[in-house]
Amino acid sequence: MQAENISGKILSLMEENPDITIKEISESLSVSEDLIEETLRKMSDARQKILIVDDEMDALLALKVALEAEGYNIVEAKDGYEAIDTAHSENPDVILLDLMIPGIDGFEVCRQLKSDPVYSHIPVIMLTARGEIDDKVEGIELGADDYVTKPFNLKELKARIKMILRRNQDA
Amino acid sequence: MWDRKSKWNLVLFAAVVLLLISSIVFLWMKTNTEVRSVVEEQYQNQQLLLTRQVSSSIERTLNERVLLLEVIANKDTGVPPDNFRSDLKSVYDVAGMFYVVEYVNEDGTIVSGYPEDNVPLGFNLYENKQSRAFERVKNTGQVYITDPLRLMEGNYGSFIWVPVHEDDEFRGAFIAIIREEDLKSRYVVASNSSNYAYLLDDRGRVLYDESENYERGTSYAEILGSDSSGLLDIISKQVNGTEGNGKYLVLNNGTVVEERLVSYSPINWYNQKWSLALTSPSSEVDRLIVSVYLKLFIVVAVSVLFIVFVSSFIVIILFNWSKSLEQEVDEKTQELKDSNESLRAANKKLKELDRLKTEFLSIVSHELKTPLTAMKTSGEFLLETEECDRSLRKKMLDIIIRNIDRQSRMVDDLLDISRIESDRMKFNKEPVDIEETIKVSLEVVDTIIRNKDMKVAVSVPDDLEIITTDKDKLVQVFVNLLNNAVKFSNKGGTIKINVEDETDSLRISVSDNGIGMGPEEVEKIFDKFYQIDSTSTRRVGGSGLGLSIVKGIIEGQGGTITVLSEPGKGSTFVFTLMK
Questions:
Q1: Are residues A36 and A98 in the same domain?
Q2: To the nearest whole angstrom, how far is the Cα of B537 from the nearest Cα of chain A?
Q3: Cβ separation of A61 and B395 shorter than 8 Å?
Q4: Quick check: A58 and B362 CB within 8 A?
């Protein structure tokens, strides 16, 4: 939220004065230079953004490393509430959503995102250790765009992510 | 209040009841009348029998006496020299009811007799102008009996004239006198108090009446006829010499005083035709009926009382029986309810167990797949990425090794649980120093304790003896409890371990001042995979099997484990360890 506000103000300052330095911006907005730098770095990041929601740190870390190596910008969330907040603030291009997460579970996160018109366009890929068909049906009914069973094949997951991103760009 | 319909019902009911009662009364009265007529008839027949018996006995007695005289009067030997004196004496003695017996010779003179005191010897009938009866028997040659006449002694008696013949030649006559009072004793004795007897001759004149209140020779009809309706009919039948029953009403100034039942029977004594009658008031019949009814009533009353007694007895028995049955049914119902309840509870528990089993499988599957996911992702990444910098490579390999450890721990835990549940857990008992065991356990969890900046306070009695138990399992218990305490504590919290020596066991508590839990959670804390708010919201890691294993280890060695907890104030696990 704060980052977005700042990014808007930074943009207007830069329009007024294209040669403005980070220090000057920092002074005029009275925030730290680090934050300005971070914000500018994020703003200039052209990579596609993936939100990974998983409470298992190792699984999340491994996936993050693997996807970053593919050139994606990864943001992470460890529970349901954080997932929604992050989705709101980061506006990711795709969400990899684990079903069994603390707080509110994956189904509920998916339902809330898909019922909000501002975020309903974000594609959701459900990840779960459960392989039952019921989960698949429920996941897809709630608007999940795809469904991958853990432990997944990394190539397959990457292919599915690519496909969904391309589909969204075309649309 | 009664509504219209039930009012009509009531009226109808009352009418039916009245009809029933009146028909019963009518039938009863009819029966009563019939009974009365039957009883009256019976009574009259009985009275007639009595009358007949009395009259025939009188008749026989009188005729026999006369026959005795006739026998000697017609002897072939003629008049004996003592003028029948000895014969008369024996007749007198045999008869026993004559006042006197005399012999009158053909001249009309009394020449002999017995007993002599009563015999006017030499008395001549012709001279005293009393020859009418003598003449009569002389002419007719038949026995002649006079109406009762006044005797010389002043009382009344019947004269029996028996002609004496010798070869068809008239030789005088016997006179025998039966005094009325001697005769009377014959039938007065026969009659009883309620009966009333009278004797009429063939002209309806009264010979005897118990009341003695009559003039000799007057007609009975004249005495009583005016006050007695129906008596005249009876008298006329009596005069005709028939026997039978009748009744007449005794009137007093035109009102009926009483009804009398009369039975009459003739007495034929040679020329004398008499009729004996016994009467009794019809109230006697009523008295009889009443006495019968009284007896009947007593029998009925006794029967009713008996029936009421017996039936109330039966009712009481049945009532008690049904009461006890009811009670039994209640008890059985209660038992059924209870067993139903316990079945329902058991069913619920089974369903819960089934649900837990499903959940267990799903959780186990999740717990096994999660490390696999991390390993697989890392492994595939390393496989794909040929040029990879060292630090990234190390990171991925760390992930793989960590998850292998995790999976192996998970498998160990599952094996432990499986052993505990099938009672196959083995304990290798050895001498164990508790304090040292606690130290070892604390070393195992040292990293996570330091990560959360937590303090640990251990309190062990100085003189604590070495106990015999499974050391590795005890370490497992402490590690699991400490892990649990750390997981549910906030940063900078304190964990206390307290050991107390009791006679044959140790009482060890591990407490924290973390988030604690409510009573419902306390109840389930030792269940497999139970973690606060279990379903999909595990805020802390771990298999969820730790406390189940702890409980299994403690109880498997004969100890107990309990937990005290309050939300926000932390939890205390207390277990006992047999020495």
A1: no
A2: 3
A3: yes
A4: no
The CATH number linked to B308 is 1.10.287.130
Is B348 in CB contact (< 8 Å) with chain A? Answer: no
B385 at A interface, C-beta within 8 A = yes
Same domain, A22 and A95: no
Q: B200: exposed, middle or buried (C-beta count within 10 Å: 0-12, 13-18, 19+)?
A: buried
Residue from A56, A78, A133 to probe the interface with B (highest B Cβ count within 10 Å): A56
User: Does residue B462 share a domain with residue B337?
Assistant: no
Taking the C-alpha atoms of residue A59 and residue A36, their distance in angstroms, rounded to an integer, is: 32
Residues A17 and A35 in one domain: yes
- Our CA-based measurement puts residue B418 at a distance from the nearest CA of chain A, in whole angstroms, of 23
| DSSP-derived secondary structure letter, A20 | -
User: Is B351 found in the same domain as B489?
Assistant: no
Same domain, A90 and A153: yes
Same domain, B221 and B126: no
Inter-chain contact B403–A129, Cβ cutoff 8 Å?
A: no
CATH number at residue A91: 3.40.50.2300
Q: Give the span between the Cα atoms of B8 and B153, in whole angstroms.
A: 89
Q: How many whole angstroms separate alpha carbon B488 and alpha carbon B138? A: 165
Count how many pairs of residues, chain A against chain B, have C-beta atoms within 8 Å. 88
Q: Report the distance separating Cα A161 and Cα A164, nearest Å.
A: 5
Burial of B533 (0-12, 13-18, 19+ CB in 10 A): exposed
Searching chain B, which residue's CA lies closest to the CA of residue A106?
B536
Structure-token pair, residue B524: 């389930």
Q: What is the pLDDT along chain B (579 residues), one digit of tens a residue?
A: 556 778 898 999 999 999 999 999 999 889 888 888 888 888 889 889 988 988 898 889 889 988 988 888 887 777 888 888 888 898 899 888 888 999 998 888 999 988 888 888 888 888 888 888 888 888 888 899 988 888 877 788 888 999 988 888 888 899 999 888 887 776 665 555 567 788 888 888 888 877 777 777 788 877 776 677 788 888 888 888 889 998 888 887 778 888 888 899 999 988 889 898 888 888 888 888 888 889 988 999 999 999 999 999 999 999 999 899 999 999 999 999 999 999 999 999 999 888 878 877 877 887 788 888 889 999 999 988 877 788 888 989 988 998 898 888 888 888 888 888 888 888 888 999 999 999 999 998 898 899 899 999 999 988 888 888 999 999 999 999 998 888 888 889 999 999 998 888 899 999 999 888 888 888 777 876 665 444 333 444 566 788 888 999 999 888 999 999 988 889 999 999 988
User: Are A35 and A54 contained in the same domain?
Assistant: no
- Does an H or E element contain B247, and which? strand B244-252
3-class state of residue A48 by DSSP: coil
